[in-house]
Design a protein that fits this description.
The complex is a heterodimer.
Chain A: H1 6-47, H2 54-63, H3 65-79, H4 87-103, H5 108-133, H6 137-155, E1 160-161, H7 165-172, E2 174-177, E3 181-184, H8 185-203, H9 205-215, H10 217-222, H11 227-253, E4 255-256, H12 264-274, H13 286-306, H14 312-332
Antiparallel strand pairs in A: 1-4, 2-3
Helix pairs in contact in A: 1-13, 1-14, 3-8, 3-9, 3-11, 3-12, 3-13, 4-5, 4-6, 4-11, 5-6, 5-11, 8-9, 8-11, 9-11, 12-13, 13-14
Chain B: H1 2-25, E1 33-35, E2 38-40, H2 42-65, H3 73-90, H4 97-124, H5 129-148, E3 152-154, H6 158-165, E4 167-168, E5 171-172, H7 173-190, H8 194-203, H9 205-210, H10 215-241, E6 243-245, H11 253-263, H12 275-294, H13 302-317, H14 319-326, H15 344-347, H16 360-365
Helix pairs in contact in B: 1-12, 2-7, 2-10, 2-11, 2-12, 3-4, 3-5, 3-10, 4-5, 4-10, 6-10, 11-12
Region (Disordered) (chain B): 327-369
Pfam families (chain B): BPD_transp_2
Transmembrane segments (chain B): 46-66, 73-91, 97-117, 129-148, 168-189, 218-237, 249-268, 275-295
Chain lengths: 338, 369
């Protein structure tokens, strides 16, 4: 006869194992994305000398910091079952506002909040139009994309250089890491944003509501979750991230131009999808989006190292990768999440 | 019929407003004259330059009616234009009609294949349309640049130029092509049961399947049709400029086309479409661009203007917004949606959620109580 005290222990252990197995299953798309990233990197290292330097890997973060921030914001929207096409334009608008206000003589400590505020306001406005008036996210954010890009043209049709010393210092400051390597401020900010996003999504009420709304909006509403707050919230987060991406972009490129970030919203969406997040919402991780961005970045680095390959191969390879990942997801994702 | 007229009323009003604004600024806006045996005038120009958009919007209508979306049409435009121009440029006799016919046929054939590929991904592999077509949207432009070798291919071929600049009995060829496509599509889907079947599958795929409709074949056919339409648009665009630019041909035209379809009253959630609405939507989007020029709106504010009109049309189509405008003090905006009431209506028509129930569609048109 089993002592009564071990029975609950056994059942706890059993449910624990089951939970672990389930969790492992949920991590498969992300781990596959990570595996492909490692394989790509290994292939690059095998083919080119000087590829396996730690700094090459860190430069992936440095060169794609703005895209990581963008993708993290889009992850919120996609997890909640929406889509945001406006991020590339909002990035351009934020960069443009930075450059313009600096030229007008504003102090940089005011310029950056102003740029971030523009993204928050635009994102919240889109969220309100989507939630309160039932306009489809695709169309509403398409309008937002036109609007933000249009505002860029209104500010200036020409490129505005940024000569502010603080921006220059922020762009050039390197945070030294062991082994003679270093990271830029932008890369550190991007990693911090990704970490904060992961915390918000998994450890706060808002984050759990995002997953719930993405899984089934009507169920979430019947459970009494604040669906409206979540829907407006995710677009606001995405707008904020896009604006922050714009600020990081100005560090990287030191100018404001109305043509910045053309088509970048698609790169961000592609990175999110490659990272294993389902476009139907409710399933995915921020980590996946970061891996997705790094994968796209690795392809680009390989093309740079190859030298003879033309830029259009990036697009073709990215498209092919997208296909592979989607097929993988279909094969591996839990049935309920499809 | 009256229900359809009611749905078309808002787009019609917007178009009338746009045209009236143009007429107020340019008194001769409605004048149409015949010069050198060809029709001239602003209205003709709108239709002439709007043909590629109209063609793509028509294809997009069927795809959207099936609860899908095709983001790759712009890339297909680029591929088709690149193929046609490269073939003509490489031919021994670029000016011979046979060369041009072969080039156009190749371009359309390749576009059909690309459409077929999209349809295969969506209908057979059951990938979400927005992702499935995103693949080709990204890769397609790369393929187009691969075909042209990264250059802008220019062609000097009289028959090819005529596709855009020629005329049939004073009517520009582009208008003839557009009218023929509209007529063909109308005959195909409205004079047969095809349109009904498409609406049935789009409204509720499971119910359609139980009713014995072969959804797979229908979906593949719709995407293929959309691909051919995009290919045709690519031919028209490249004939118009006499060149193929893998990077910029048909850039963002997919967004304009989706906009045109939505303005025309076709729901992104599928199950209902209107050919007349799409034609109207495409004409509105094109007149918008024309208006920007004739009204003397500075080019730098053209996009903001366009965005404002987009928001306006979307909001006008939202029953909630109309109710609010009609009765400013009747009903405040609730801070969060109550479990009963209008909050439910917008929640279920998400563009990227093909799993949403089909029952939400009629509810959208009702003014909230």
């Amino acid at each position: 006869m089993t002592p009564p005290s071990t029975l609950p222990g056994l059942s706890v252990a059993l449910s624990r194992t089951r939970e672990l197995a389930e969790r492992r299953r949920r991590f498969i798309p992300v781990s596959m994305a990570g595996l492909v990233l490692v394989l790509l990197f290994a292939a690059g290292s095998a083919r080119y000398t000087g590829f396996l330097e730690p700094q090459v890997a860190l430069n992936l973060l440095v060169n794609n910091a703005f895209l990581i921030v963008l993708a993290v914001g889009v992850t919120f929207v996609i997890l909640a079952g929406g889509i945001d096409l406006s991020t590339g334009s909002v990035l351009a608008l934020s960069a443009m506002i930075c450059a313009w206000l600096l030229r007008e003589g504003w102090p940089p400590v005011l310029v950056i909040p102003a740029a971030l505020l523009s993204g928050v306001v635009l994102g919240a406005a889109q969220g309100c139009i989507i939630h309160f008036y039932g306009v489809q996210p695709f169309i509403a954010t398409l309008g937002g994309m036109f609007f933000a890009r249009g505002l860029c043209y209104l500010i200036s049709t020409e490129s505005i250089p940024i000569t502010d010393p603080l921006f220059g210092a922020l762009a050039q400051t390197r945070i030294p890491l062991p082994g003679g390597t270093s990271l830029s401020v932008g890369a550190v900010v991007a990693l911090a944003v990704a970490g904060a996003a992961a915390y918000v999504l998994h450890r706060t009420r808002f984050g759990r509501s995002v997953y719930a709304v993405g899984g089934s909006e009507s169920s979430a509403m019947l459970m009494g979750l604040a669906v409206g707050r979540v829907k407006v919230g995710v677009y606001t987060v995405s707008g904020f991230c896009a604006a922050l991406g714009g600020v990081l972009y100005t560090f990287y490129i030191a100018s404001g131009n109305s043509l910045h970030g053309l088509g970048m919203e698609l790169d961000a969406i592609a990175a999110v999808v490659i990272g294993g997040t389902l476009l139907t919402g409710g399933f995915g991780y921020v980590l996946g989006s970061v891996v997705g961005v790094l994968t796209l970045g690795t392809i680009q680095t390989i093309l740079v190292f190859e030298g003879t390959l033309s830029s259009w191969w990036t697009k073709i390879v990215a498209g092919a990768l997208l296909l592979v990942f989607i097929l993988l997801q279909r094969a591996l994702a839990p049935r309920s999440a499809r | 019929m009256s229900a359809q007229m009611r749905r078309l009323m808002w787009p019609l009003l917007v178009l009338a407003g746009l045209l009236a604004a143009n007429l107020a600024v340019t008194p001769g806006f409605f004048e149409i004259s015949v010069k050198d045996g060809r029709l001239y005038g602003s209205l003709v120009d709108i239709l002439h330059f709007g043909t590629p958009l109209l063609l793509i919007s028509l294809g997009m209508t069927l795809v959207i009616a099936l609860r899908g979306i095709d983001l790759s049409v712009g890339a297909v435009v680029a591929v088709s234009a690149a193929l046609a121009c490269e073939m003509i440029a490489a031919a021994d006799h670029p000016g011979s009609p046979a060369t041009v016919a072969a080039a156009v046929a190749t371009a359309l054939g390749a576009s059909a294949l690309l459409g077929l590929w999209n349809g295969f991904l969506v209908a057979v592999l059951r990938i979400q349309p927005i992702v499935a077509t995103l693949i080709l949207m990204i890769a397609g432009r790369g393929v187009a640049q691969l075909i042209t070798g990264g250059q802008i291919t220019t062609v000097r071929s009289e028959p090819y130029r005529r596709i855009a600049a020629g005329d049939v009995a004073a009517v520009p060829v582009t208008l003839v092509v557009a009218a023929a496509t509209v007529l063909l599509m109308w005959l195909l889907v409205r004079r047969t049961a095809l349109g009904l079947l498409i609406e049935a599958i789009g409204g509720n795929a499971e119910a359609g399947r139980l009713a014995g409709i072969r959804a797979t074949g229908m979906t593949v056919a719709a995407y293929t049709f959309c691909g051919v339409c995009a290919g045709l648009a690519g031919v028209v665009i490249s004939a118009n400029t006499g060149s193929a630019d893998g990077n910029n041909a048909g850039l963002w035209i997919e967004l304009d086309a989706i906009l045109a379809v939505v303005i025309g009253g076709t729901l992104l959630s599928g199950g209902r479409f209107s050919i007349a609405g799409t034609v109207l939507g495409a004409v509105i989007v094109q007149s918008l661009s024309t208006t920007v020029y004739t009204m003397g709106v500075p080019p730098e504010s053209a996009l903001v203007f366009k965005a404002v009109v987009v928001f306006l049309v979307c909001l006008l189509q939202s029953p909630r917004f109309r109710a609010q405008v009609a009765a400013p003090f009747g009903r405040g905006r609730p801070p969060r949606p109550a479990p009963t009431g209008p909050g439910l209506a917008p929640s279920e028509e998400d563009a990227v959620r093909p799993t949403a129930t089909g029952a939400d569609e009629p509810g959208r048109q009702e003014v909230p109580r």
